[in-house]
UniProtKB/TrEMBL annotation, chains A, B:
<dbReference type="InterPro" id="IPR013022">
    <property type="entry name" value="Xyl_isomerase-like_TIM-brl"/>
</dbReference>
<feature type="binding site">
    <location>
        <position position="170"/>
    </location>
    <ligand>
        <name>a divalent metal cation</name>
    </ligand>
</feature>
<dbReference type="InterPro" id="IPR043700">
    <property type="entry name" value="DSD"/>
</dbReference>
<feature type="binding site">
    <location>
        <position position="244"/>
    </location>
    <ligand>
        <name>a divalent metal cation</name>
    </ligand>
</feature>
<dbReference type="Pfam" id="PF01261">
    <property type="entry name" value="AP_endonuc_2"/>
</dbReference>
<keyword id="KW-0413">Isomerase</keyword>
<dbReference type="InterPro" id="IPR037523">
    <property type="entry name" value="VOC_core"/>
</dbReference>
<dbReference type="GO" id="GO:0046279">
    <property type="term" value="P:3,4-dihydroxybenzoate biosynthetic process"/>
</dbReference>
<comment type="similarity">
    <text>Belongs to the bacterial two-domain DSD family.</text>
</comment>
<dbReference type="GO" id="GO:0046872">
    <property type="term" value="F:metal ion binding"/>
</dbReference>
<dbReference type="InterPro" id="IPR029068">
    <property type="entry name" value="Glyas_Bleomycin-R_OHBP_Dase"/>
</dbReference>
<feature type="binding site">
    <location>
        <position position="196"/>
    </location>
    <ligand>
        <name>a divalent metal cation</name>
    </ligand>
</feature>
<comment type="function">
    <text>Catalyzes the conversion of 3-dehydroshikimate to protocatechuate (3,4-dihydroxybenzoate), a common intermediate of quinate and shikimate degradation pathways.</text>
</comment>
<dbReference type="GO" id="GO:0016853">
    <property type="term" value="F:isomerase activity"/>
</dbReference>
<dbReference type="Pfam" id="PF14696">
    <property type="entry name" value="Glyoxalase_5"/>
</dbReference>
<feature type="binding site">
    <location>
        <position position="139"/>
    </location>
    <ligand>
        <name>a divalent metal cation</name>
    </ligand>
</feature>
<keyword id="KW-0479">Metal-binding</keyword>
Length: 606, 606
């Protein structure tokens, strides 16, 4: 079963703005069609006819008009009113050029629990619709008063037995209730009129609130949409794959990037369904380098810090104002830039096939970055992540044009160092609107696997964190974001970024780096008193940790020792980590203490 | 039973920032003591001893150290580890100068369901604590593994029978489960070691998530804390009333205003418990006036608009650059100001006793605004609301110094008007951090009653709304706020404000105002097509509404007709409302359509 030829649609309710904003964003992201959400039409200054014409011009079909509520299984007087209401909406659909209407199962106190009556009245509605060339797609809401499973909606549709009446299946309504979607395969494909897709995190809350506020695009949540969609396609469904996602963040985010995020989610889903369109993600084998954009002051500060951390400036770029600092396999580029302070401007990963990595990224709507380089310089394949960070695909060791190291003139051999062997991970704070989008981007484009979302209470509010990593853990990117948009009063750093370096002996590295003058962060004694009470490390280890301001964590697989520099260039922090055994996390339990220490350091410096 | 002499405390977890920020804010707001939340201490650079000394200097007692988790009903080896952990925390408490430790019921997989074992081990802990001069307050978490009701925790404490072991009661844990708090009266007062107070909205969600993210200060949510606290005091509890509120918004808001909000909530609670400290809120009988601060351009625009709405400029202030515009009992002041555009600078309400209103406000920590006025001018009592808006207390008709109208020189008699008879309500968009604070402010300070919180999907994100009103509905203030902080991409108005005027005939007023040249907002035809389908007004009424761009709503009590001007001075909108029968709301169902129309108008003007 393939879904390569499925059309891709999106409900206007997924996006922020007026209907005009939404349609433009959907068309630009490459959608084939839209579901027109009634409230968007009602608030629009364009007439239904003008909306239809505008969609045509944009190349968007109108695949569904939705929702029509509280229709079926009612007393005769209510039925008469509901049929009048439906006819008026059929008028609108006629002007719009839409031929399928979503009718969702009733939540009305007027309705009665009578499947025969529901089927009879839906038959009547379908008859009226058919006379206007319209089809009715009946959907069981997860919180429908009497009809709230797809099996139940199918029994009613089968009983009604009208060719203009079929089902709308919505992955949220079905999977949120824990229903088994496998029986969808038993429904004749021609009775499946429409398919709405939404992912969601697993939340223990009222299903209506969960649905209205917390849906996500496929691949961002916890639902198995590949299996679900596979059942629907196996049943013979031939309509569009259409996204219907109610999400508080998307509702207020710029609809342009949100529509791209949505399209990427569908392409990713189609890939897992076996659609052959995308080149597979080449294997990644590590972080090649991290590039910091630095102004003149920050460059001095960063160079001092890197020297203190045991790095050596080993080369400079042949044509650009870029210096290469090395220690083992950890490579940091300092790129002189205009923007104030310091920022991680680029993440570079080792790819088995950089060109294929970039091609895949382009197919997944990642902006390809133009690179100015001389004819004899490496043609680094680069794309832009949602937060604007460049992502480079490299083969550092290769004897090819991808070997970016050849662009650097060696100025000095690498020094003795302080025990750093490579880059363990990067932690990048994401702009508020782009947290889920970023996780999907790294998952789909780079083929990294998202770990579960975690939250912790930082000194100035809750922080949400999600790490994406390749299966071997050699490429790790921790995405962080304030749970609420960062407020006005909170002092300190705009979207801090961390570069975490690997060491085999954190205590020795910390000692050596202090000798070298690294600007390491001091951790208060209370932390070690609490560590003693919580995890009771050996007294000699505890004393050494306290002495060196090294933080500690333990899980069922192993241990983590890690320490930090102060904030450099207003935004960048270096971290040094030692993993013992199979410790899986990034020491999130220590984040509030570390963040409070960073805040004190900044206050003291101010 | 009186609580006038109860001390007032706050848990540091209620407030944002580092421990230093939190203690300063608590002391400034007038709290007597604090609960030290362990995470705040662990992250602090001050030692426990220094924290204790600092609290002393600030006049704060340390009433509780919390929380100590997962202690009781465990196998012997775990017990040994837990006792070691407790002793280390007793050390910290000794240095801190805290004598009561909160132990919350276990959620650990190590624990077993054995009340005798729990009692025996808590007895042992209490014995160790007593040797250090420490008391143990045992609390049933609502999500405790085996112990999750206060009745159960009391059975265990009674069984343990140790003088250093008592109960901590937390209103959230008890009321969230729907437990009946009346039986608290049967617990001997000396076994009630601590009382934690939190309100919350009624939410259908996992109780742990509800507790950790959505608690509110007393008076902001749906719990009956007066009855609850009454039972605890009746039982003979003599400790502090202490707030423990986990809230995502407060966690990131400026702790100074948040601590004032917290203190106001406790003062309000004590008043409902019969504490005689506060002067009662004088009756309010209507809106005296609304004052707009306008720059020169906005003043021209506003004056034109007011003329179009049927207002007459009837006077000017004797000593200030303020013009009075009147129509019936609707009075608008235009105050020439420096700040760009137009804003509602002041809300003035008619009070039976303006001086008493201001005195009460001051006791409830509202900033009193200094007023510069000449000896022969009215001494208007004014305070500042959380968003900075001034609130005046007036007696417009009185033959006293409160009669502010006497400060205006009459320049012109009132004209024929356009049917406006007064001010129906004001709608003030609140800064994100201050929504719940504002509702409590108007409730406690002015004695207005909050109506339920509602939410609707505006074009650029969800909006939350709550109206506060006096019992007769003559003073109404609608508070609105974006559900998520307003994002970067959203175009348009910074925190819009609406002044809603009353008319007895909206259609006639709209017609007359159009003739007078009022800049009224056009409503798209789709709205009226949908209105026909939804509510089916009489065809002649529908046609008139459509003709005049008047919006319509209906509830079980009556009908609402209302229409709007465009946005004036970048922020201010006039609305004209006609209430028929007992219609209770403010037409929120029409807000998305109205907002989309305002956005179009601004886009067209840009």
């Amino acid at each position: 079963m393939s879904s390569t030829d499925s059309r891709r649609s999106i409900a206007t309710v997924c996006l922020s703005g007026t209907l005009e904003d939404k349609l433009t964003a959907a068309a630009r992201a490459g959608f084939d069609g839209v579901e027109i959400f009634e409230n968007d039409l009602v608030a629009s200054s364009w007439s239904a006819k003008e909306i239809g014409e505008h969609c045509s011009e944009l190349g968007l079909s109108i695949d569904l008009y939705q929702p029509f509520r509280d229709f079926e299984a009612v007393p005769p007087d209510v039925l008469a009113r509901n049929l009048r209401r439906a006819e008026l909406k059929f008028d609108v659909m006629g002007r719009l050029g839409a031929d399928t209407m979503l009718v969702c199962s009733s939540v009305s106190p007027d309705a009665v629990d009578d499947d025969d009556l529901a089927a009879e009245q839906l038959h009547l509605l379908a008859e009226r619709a058919a006379a206007r060339g319209i089809r009715i797609a009946y959907e069981a809401l997860a919180w429908g008063r009497f009809v709230n499973t797809y099996e139940h909606s199918w029994r009613i549709v089968r009983r009604a037995a009208h060719p203009a009446l079929g089902l709308c299946l919505d992955s949220f309504h079905i999977l949120s209730r824990g229903s088994d979607p496998a029986a969808i395969r038993t429904i004749p494909g021609e009775k499946l009129f429409f398919l709405q897709l939404a992912d969601a995190p697993r939340l223990q809350m009222d299903v209506l609130q969960w649905s209205r506020h917390h849906r996500l695009f496929p691949g961002q949540g916890a639902f198995d949409l590949t299996a679900f969609t596979g059942h629907v396609l196996a049943a013979g469904y031939r309509g569009p794959l259409s996204l219907e996602v109610f999400n508080d963040v998307f509702r207020q985010a710029d609809p342009g990037p949100a529509a791209v995020d949505a399209m990427r989610s569908l392409l990713g889903l189609q890939e897992t369904l076996g659609a052959a369109g995308l080149p597979p993600a080449p294997a990644l084998s590590g972080h090649a380098f991290a590039e910091l954009a630095v102004d003149a002051d920050a460059e001095v500060r960063l160079a001092e810090a890197l020297r203190g951390l045991g790095f050596t400036e080993t080369g400079h770029h042949r044509s650009k104002p870029v210096r290469l600092w090395r220690q083992g396999d950890a490579r940091i580029l300092l790129n002189s830039a205009e923007a104030p302070g310091a920022s991680v401007a680029a993440v570079a990963v080792e790819s088995a096939d950089p060109v294929a990595s970039a091609k895949r990224a382009q197919r997944l709507l990642a902006p390809i970055l133009p690179r100015s380089h001389r004819a004899d310089e490496a043609d680094l394949s680069a794309i832009a992540a949602p937060d604007g960070t460049s992502v480079f695909f490299c083969r550092t060791g290769a004897d090819t044009a991808d070997s970016w190291l050849g662009d650097f003139t060696e100025t000095s051999p690498e020094g003795a160092g302080a025990g750093v062997t490579g880059i363990d991970h990067l932690a990048l704070t994401q702009p508020f609107d782009h947290f889920d989008e970023a996780a999907l981007f790294y998952r789909a484009v780079l083929g990294l696997a998202p770990e579960p979302v975690t939250e912790f209470a930082a000194p100035f509010g809750l922080v949400r964190s999600r790490t994406v990593a390749d299966p071997s853990g050699r490429v790790r990117i921790a995405l962080e974001s304030a749970l609420l948009r960062r407020g006005d009063w909170a002092p300190g750093v705009r979207e801090p970024q961390r570069i975490a370096l690997t060491t085999g002996d954190a205590l020795a590295s910390a000692r050596r780096m202090r000798e070298l003058g690294a600007p390491l962060l001091e951790i208060p004694g209370n932390y070690y008193d609490d560590l003693d009470a919580r995890l009771a490390p050996e007294p000699s280890l505890l004393a050494a940790l306290r002495e060196e301001s090294v933080l500690y964590d333990r899980d069922e697989h192993g241990e983590l020792l890690h320490f930090f520099t102060v904030v450099l260039g207003g935004r960048v922090i270096f971290e040094v980590v030692q993993r013992i055994g199979g410790y899986a996390g990034d020491g999130a339990a220590n984040s509030p203490v570390r963040m409070a220490a960073h805040r004190r350091q900044r206050a003291a410096a101010a």
